[in-house]
Amino acid sequence: MIVLGIETSCDETSAALVADGRDILSNIIATQLDLLRKYGGVVPEVAARRHTELIGYVIREALDTAGKTLDDVEAVAVTARQGLIGCLLVGAAAAKSISYARGLPLIGLHHIEGHIFANRLSNPEMPFPHVCLTVSGGHTMLLYADGSGRYELLGTTLDDAAGEAFDKIAKFLDLDFPGGPVIDRLSKDGNRKAFRFPRPMLRSKSLDFSFSGLKTSIINTFKEQVSRGDKLPLADIAASFQEAAVDVLVTRTVRAAHEKGVTVLSVTGGVSANSRLREAFQASARREGMDVYFPALSLCTDNAAMIAAAGYERLRRGEVSDLNLDVVPNAPLEV
Amino acid sequence: MIVLGIDTSGYANAVGVVTDGRILADVAFEARTDSLEKIVVNIDDVLRSAGRTLGDIDGIGVGLGPGSWTGIRVGVTVGKILAFSAGKKVAGISTLEALAYGARDESASVCAVIGTGAGNAVYAACYRVRDGELTLDGDYYVGPAAGLAETVTDTTVLVGSGAAAYAKEIEREMNNARVHIVAMEAAPGGAAIALLAERRLERGDSDDALSLTPLYLKESTAKALVQQRAEKKKTWGKG
Question: pTM to 2 decimals?
């Protein structure tokens, strides 16, 4: 069964065709990196306008690349919950129109459920139940997933998302945008023990995250040097910051797995592409006798293939939306 | 020819069906801030009430705005993706023209106004009417309603939501007692969009569905700010 997935929750316009929830026939992603660089972040109105311009082309490209037509598509899955409302609206309007015009089942999904299935697309053998950490520019979320389509939220960020902290530190150090890949690259030449930055809440029992204290500590440590125009040890700062963030993410996730009595970890979202994060998770998992899974690099950031894969699972359980589907910018995943 | 018309630029999902210049159905469903939830169901209801299905129609007319930015994105996306997936022709129609079209029998000179939602600023366009055909007179206008006083030089019908209040502001600004403004309260209708689209489609004049974009008439605040900053830099560079 071929599912058309559509994802426009933030700043990527994406459409994909996925067969049987497993085989990616196409996964077209139009990024708005040019706009991000220009504005230093996502501007909702600007992003929504770009989605409206691109959505039709991206859908056609997904069909053409897969060598299929709408006649071959058997269902439409779309991100309808969690994201920027003006952006979500564009994808949902497109999905509803296709569903109506072609008489196809419609599945409205939570964005984070897509990330969970990005990892299943890359690692079909990854078992349930598991603990899933979704880390990106917009989310830092620890979930317990048992494969039933119901999720238990174990922890979330109390302030900045992990990826947001990378972006803000990159901005402070006057590095390129987005900050994640730049800091990752720069850190390879740095000493991750050069500075001992705080690990916020590491000892607390909670499974929640906080990154603003780490960010503030770095800014306070170096702001005088920045204002004097001194040359900063950029690679060492980047590596030490990254180490602190990674330390918190890995420790919390492993602890969550202990609490839930599972030995499988799934790490998804844009930040899961970070090489040091992967290395640290693998080392920790080995020590703890756990298995850790990451999506292919191409499936870490927002994409519609993961939405099509998650939609396929819902459809198999008979969970479809009707044509009154609406979008919800802040929605719990549990519902 | 059977044409479906939709417009979601205001506080309603306006949907109409016309055939050969005749209105088969024309309904405005209230949709305060969110056009998305009901738009497809609204379209289906109106098609049914006209005794038609999506498969029966020859083309789709879409109100491009101006109006609510979120609203026009929903309408334009639905219009273009319906056209793409049902294999129908599409024609984008200015919502201001659709408003003016409803007043074409009232005067040789019609101005359509739509509030921008920011103070008393309006989107507006003035049209000349000859033999029932509208021609845009000058450019689209964005600014305080009173600013239209320069454009209005003879007796004019001012059509739109809140037209009476805007007419007063324009008259206050005008120094010409012989020029009258007749206010006509109206909201954009789906059938008006469909009728204008049908005329274009009959001439073989349609839009490429995938490239159809809303008529915002205003940059987003962020874009305007970035442009201002760039302008400033340029000026400094010259100095």
Answer: 0.94
Ordered domains of chain A (ranges, CATH): 2-115+299-316 (3.30.420.40), 128-294 (3.30.420.40)
Q: Based on the domain organization, do B50 and B70 belong to the same domain?
A: yes
Please report the pLDDT score of residue B232 as a whole number. Answer: 65
* Pick from A46, A53, A96: CB nearest B223: A46
pLDDT score of B97 more than 90: yes
- Provide the strand spans (E) within B104-146: 109-115, 121-130, 133-136, 141-144
| Structural tokens at position A38 | 């220009």
pLDDT (tens digit, 9 = 90+) per residue, A190-213? 999 999 999 877 778 899 999 999
Host domain of residue B78: 2-94+188-219
Look-up of token digits 């950490």: A133
What pLDDT does A329 receive?
93
What's the DSSP call for residue A230?
P
CA–centroid distance for A231 within its chain: 34
> What ipTM is given for this predicted complex?
0.93
Residues B7 and B79 reside in one and the same domain: yes
Residues pairing with A4 in the sheet: A17, A76
Strands B121-130 and B141-144: antiparallel
**Distance in angstroms (rounded) separating the CA atoms of residues A314 and A322:** 14
| Chain B hits for A46, Cβ within 8 Å | 220, 222-223
Regarding whether B198 and B177 lie in a shared domain, the answer is no
Number of domains in chain B: 2
Q: What is the pLDDT of residues A266-321, one digit of tens each?
A: 999 999 999 999 999 999 999 999 999 999 999 999 999 999 999 999 999 999 99
Distance CA A12, CA A14 (A): 6
SS3 A154: strand
Q: Which residue has the higher pLDDT, B180 or B176?
A: B180
Taking an 8 Å cut-off on Cβ atoms, the answer to whether A94 and B82 are in contact is no
Which of A60, A70, A96 is facing B40, going by the closest CB pair?
A: A96
